[in-house]
Each structure stands twice: as structure tokens, then as C-alpha cells.
Design a protein that fits this description.
Structural class of chain A: alpha/beta
Largest sheet of chain B: none
Order of helices and strands of chain B: HHHHHHHHHH
Strand content of chain A: 25-35%
Shape of chain A: elongated
CATH superfamily of the largest domain in chain A: P-loop containing nucleotide triphosphate hydrolases
Strand order of the largest sheet of chain A: 6-7-8-3-9-10
Number of domains of chain A: 2
Shape of chain B: globular
Order of helices and strands of chain A: EEEHEEHEHHHEHEHEEHEEEHEH
Largest sheet of chain A: 6 strands, mixed
Radius of gyration of chain A: 24 Å
Number of strands of chain A: 14
Number of helices of chain B: 10
Oligomer: heterodimer
Strand content of chain B: under 5%
CATH class of the largest domain in chain A: Alpha Beta
């Protein structure tokens, strides 16, 4: 199947010499949710901005639905909806007018029935006559989503949809995204929360310093990086690892006071209970237990190390 | 061409105008009334008729032009600067809409508002003075073309401006002096020959002169020249706007 978005060797260099994107290639399939993960300044927003037409690439081509975004920009842009990172709305405009305006901008004839359905699905119908400045932060973000969907795009870009948003709202946003996916909309979202990408995406792309380090299905990526590390502090130091405990991937710290154990959180049996029971059985007294998940930062570090190795 | 998109921008801008219709009308009408009271009634009585037209009536076209120029520039520059300031410009830039549609929408609305206000001023002036319009068609044509030309200029100012100060500075420092020196309140022929020559370097003089001709049938410069001046200004501004959108100057990175 032809990808809905085909990014080929796209680069962006600014006048100052900064390289925001370096030969990025990526194919996005119709109907999938792709999360672009990366720290601030990694190039996520630049990539989205290029596809949407806000930033002009220095090199490379992008096709949306087979249309080149530069040569056939009208056809390409009709397929796209963008929810920007910053909340930008005209403060004195009514919600419904705002959404109708965007639909008009895309050259679509008025369709009040669709606008009503859209606003209802985003729980905004009761607020349709409210001025946007009267809305809460979460509602404003939903108005931006309604605007982006007003012309029924095939691809929706959500740039940091949950940045600076509380937990309840974040969950609400995830529900919205899932509902859209169920309708067949392809969704590309950027985030710097690993948890968010893990929860929502089919595939995850990791960007750092303008390079696309990898794109993998979520399951693959979490399998590789979604490990947790268990540290067991002991009352009495051990000279060596008991023979019975060998062969399980256990490590003993230099001072013999800490046992380390890496496990996969999604495995059916993590082996933790078994391990603790066996320690008790052998009379090895446990002082404390702590776990740590590989953080996004560590994933980056390991990816960057891999790259330079 | 994406006509619906031009229409969407036009209606969006007009809605903003109608949301604040009373403020939009009150201030220009009030200042016109003041001009009539001061120049028409208080001072005008002591000023001779110009080419047979009472001074109070003579300044009507100049006052309308003053308003049209100020309003066109202010409306169009604010119209495009505000989305830049509020951040909502992104949706215009990502929409499948070209520079012509965007310009038609913003400039059309700015010019329409300016013409409406100018006509309200004309109606107001009937209260103070007997104004006879010799060529109503040309009066409207000059009004409309001038409004379009200066709305285009305002649009460029709004695209160029990086802050509210810059948005104000051109109208204040350039437009207002040009209008005052362009013969809004006098005929260039009333000036000494040297200053008459200088005044004729002022493009606004050609607009006011042509407009005044449509009222009274006499002009400082030939009417054809006035029309050519407006047409030239429209073309130059359109060229500049096209360049801005195609290169993305101050719009896209």
C-alpha cells in the first residue's frame, strides 16, 4: 500500500547554520498513529511544520496522499489538519464561528450538520456560542482540534497535544485521539512523554538533534527499551553470587551489598516474586527494594551511543 | 482559485468590524464633525470660496479621503497583524489557499469598511453643508480604488510589522502628513509656485485631486493622471504582496 505520507531525505538548515533536520526519511501508513518522540529542540516541530507548509525545507521532498507538498500544495494541504503546540485562538470569536472559518479557509462549503457532530464529539456543543477567551485550557485545545478537523482531513498532526496539560485532560485527549483513529484518520503526534507514546501509538519514531534515530512498532521498541531494573539492598554483603541464583541475569555490586536484576515489565512472569522468595529461603536478609524504568533519556543515550559506536 | 477561502477571510474580517461597529463609526464621525465645526463654521466663514465652492463644502472630499486613507491602512494592517500577534496566522499558512485569496479577503474587507465609513461621513456632511456631487459614478470609483490601494499598503505594513509600535508608525509618520500636505484642506493652486511643484510630488495629491474633481468638476492635476496614480499604486502593492507570500518573508521560516 502507498504510504499516506512519504518523507524523503528532508533537511532543514537555518541561515544561522543550525541544522534542524538532517536527511530525514519516513513513511507513514494510512490509519496508523505515529508518535514522534524526542527532547525539546530535537526537530519534531520542524518536521511537522515542513509537512504542513509552515517551514520550507532546504532539501528533500514530501508527498501527502501522493501529492508533492511544494508542486501540488493545494491538493496536499487539503488532506492535512494541524493542531499546533501553542494555543492560538481569536479571543473574541465564538467557538462555532471559529470552526466554520477554518472550514471556509479550506474551501469547503458550509456544513452545519457536520460542525454540530464535530463539536458534540469533542464535548464543545454546549459551548458553541461562548467566546474562546471564556474557555478553559482543555476546551481551547479541543477547539483547535475541532478547527483542524473541520474540513475532514485524512491526516491529523497533533504537536505536543498534552504539553502543560493536567492528568485528567491528558486522558481526555487520548480518548479523542483513539476515537479519531477509529474513524480512520491517520494521526501523527509529537511528545516527549514516553508513557504517552507507549499508550497511544502504533509506531514510535525517535528524533534527536535533527536525526531520525529509529522508527519501530511500539511493541518492538518497548521490548527493547521498556525494561525495568530492580535493585535489592542487602543487610549483609555477599562475597559472591550464590550458585543457585546464577544464570538469571543477576548482578552483584562491587561492595556485595546490592543485587541488580533487569526484567521486562510486560513479560507474563517478571520473576521478582520468585527471586525474593529464594533470597528469603537462603536466609539472605533484604534491607530495601527499589525499581527504576529506563527513562526516555536513557533510551536516547543508548541510541546515541549505538550511533557513535 | 479558492473563492470560498477568500470569502471566509472576508466574512471573518467583516464580523470583527460589526462586533465593534459603534466604535468603528463613532470615532471617524466625531472627528469629522469637529473638522466641520472648526474649519467649516468657525474659520470657513472667513475663507473665500475656492473656485466658486464654499469652503465648508470644499473640504468634504478631502475629509472623506483623509478618513479612507487612515481607515484603509489601519484596518488592513491590523487585520493581518492581529493573527500574527495572536498566533492564528498558522491556519492561513497551512490552508490550501494562495496569496490572491488571502489578499482578496483581508484587503477587500478593509476597503469595504473604509468605504462604508467614508459614506457615513458624506451623509454627516450633508448636515453641515450643501454638497453637490457632479460625477457620482466617478466619486464611488475613486473612493473604492483609493480604499483598495491603501488597504493593500496597510496589508503590507501589517505583514512587515513585528510589533504594535511598528504598526502605528507608518500611518502616523507617513500617511497623515501626506494627506495634510496632499491638499485635503486647500487646493494646490493656492500654494506659491515652488511649493505647488513640491506638493505635486506627493502621490496623495493625485488621489484627493481626482476625488475632488468627481464632486466639483475641477482638479489640481488631470483626472487621467489621478486614475493612473491609483492604478500604479495598486499594481506595485500587489507585486510586493505576491513577493512576500511567495518568498515567505516574515511569514514562513
Amino acid at each position: 500500500m502507498r504510504p499516506i505520507i512519504d518523507i524523503d531525505q528532508v533537511s532543514k538548515r537555518y541561515g544561522s547554520g543550525t541544522v534542524a533536520l538532517n536527511h530525514v526519511s519516513l513513511q507513514i501508513e494510512e490509519g496508523e498513529i505515529l508518535a514522534l518522540l524526542g527532547p525539546n529542540g530535537a526537530g519534531k516541530t520542524t518536521l511537522i511544520s515542513i509537512i504542513c507548509g509552515l517551514v520550507v525545507p532546504t532539501d528533500g521532498t514530501v508527498r501527502v496522499g501522493g501529492h508533492d507538498i511544494r508542486k501540488d500544495w493545494r491538493a496536499a494541504r487539503k488532506l492535512i489538519g494541524l493542531v499546533p503546540q501553542e494555543i492560538a485562538l481569536e479571543p473574541f470569536e465564538k467557538v462555532i464561528d471559529c470552526v466554520r472559518f477554518t472550514r471556509g479557509l479550506y474551501g469547503e462549503p458550509p456544513d452545519d450538520a457536520y460542525i454540530e457532530q464535530l463539536l458534540r464529539s469533542l464535548a464543545l456543543w454546549d459551548k458553541r456560542e461562548a467566546k474562546t477567551r471564556e474557555l478553559s485550557g482543555g476546551m481551547k485545545r479541543r477547539v483547535l482540534i475541532a478547527k483542524a478537523l473541520s474540513h475532514r482531513p485524512k491526516v491529523l498532526f497533533l504537536d505536543e497535544p498534552t504539553a502543560g496539560v493536567d492528568v485528567a485532560l491528558r486522558r481526555e485527549m487520548w480518548q479523542v485521539v483513539r476515537a479519531l483513529r477509529a474513524e480512520g484518520v491517520t494521526i501523527i503526534l509529537t511528545t516527549h512523554y514516553l508513557e504517552e507514546a507507549e499508550d497511544m501509538a502504533d509506531r514510535i519514531g525517535v528524533i534527536n538533534r535533527g536525526e531520525l534515530l529509529l522508527v519501530k512498532s511500539k511493541n518492538e521498541l518497548m521490548g527493547e527499551f521498556g525494561k525495568k531494573h530492580l535493585t535489592v539492598s542487602l543487610y549483609e554483603p555477599l562475597a559472591t553470587l550464590p550458585a543457585e541464583l546464577a544464570g538469571r541475569g543477576l548482578t552483584l555490586s562491587a561492595d556485595g551489598r546490592e543485587l541488580g536484576y533487569a526484567y521486562d515489565t510486560r513479560a507474563e512472569r517478571t520473576g521478582i516474586a520468585h527471586l525474593l522468595a529464594e533470597l528469603a529461603e537462603r536466609g539472605i536478609a533484604v534491607r530495601d527494594v527499589s525499581t527504576k524504568q529506563s527513562s526516555l533519556e536513557e533510551i536516547f543515550m543508548s541510541l546515541v551511543e549505538e550511533e557513535t559506536a | 482559485m479558492n473563492w470560498r477561502s477568500a470569502r471566509a477571510v472576508f466574512e471573518h474580517e467583516m464580523a470583527r468590524f460589526f462586533r465593534t461597529i459603534w466604535q468603528s463609526l463613532a470615532s471617524p464621525v466625531l472627528s469629522t464633525v469637529l473638522y466641520f465645526v472648526v474649519f467649516g463654521a468657525a474659520i470657513g466663514g472667513r475663507i473665500q470660496a475656492v473656485e466658486g465652492v464654499a469652503y465648508g463644502a470644499f473640504i468634504v472630499p478631502g475629509l472623506m479621503m483623509l478618513t479612507v486613507l487612515q481607515q484603509s491602512v489601519a484596518n488592513a494592517s491590523f487585520g493581518i497583524y492581529f493573527p500574527k500577534f495572536a498566533g492564528t496566522i498558522y491556519e492561513i499558512l497551512v490552508a490550501p489557499t494562495g496569496w490572491i485569496e488571502v489578499t482578496l479577503g483581508f484587503v477587500g474587507a478593509a476597503a469595504a469598511k473604509a468605504v462604508m465609513i467614508a459614506l457615513v461621513i458624506l451623509l454627516t456632511s450633508f448636515w453641515f453643508t450643501g454638497v453637490h456631487i457632479a460625477h457620482p459614478f466617478w466619486m464611488l470609483a475613486f473612493l473604492l480604488l483609493t480604499a483598495i490601494a491603501f488597504s493593500l499598503l496597510g496589508f503590507i505594513i501589517g505583514l512587515w510589522a513585528k510589533n504594535f509600535e511598528q504598526l502605528q508608525i507608518v500611518p502616523m509618520m507617513v500617511i497623515t502628513p501626506l494627506v495634510f500636505l496632499g491638499g485635503a484642506f486647500y487646493s494646490a493652486s493656492m500654494l506659491p509656485p515652488f511649493w505647488e511643484g513640491v506638493a505635486k510630488l506627493n502621490p496623495v495629491l493625485y488621489l484627493i485631486s481626482g476625488f475632488r474633481w468627481s464632486f466639483f468638476g475641477f482638479a489640481d492635476v488631470p483626472v487621467g493622471l489621478s486614475l493612473a496614480a491609483v492604478a500604479l499604486m495598486i499594481l506595485v502593492c500587489m507585486g510586493a504582496i505576491r513577493w512576500i507570500f511567495l518568498t515567505g518573508w516574515r511569514l514562513r521560516e
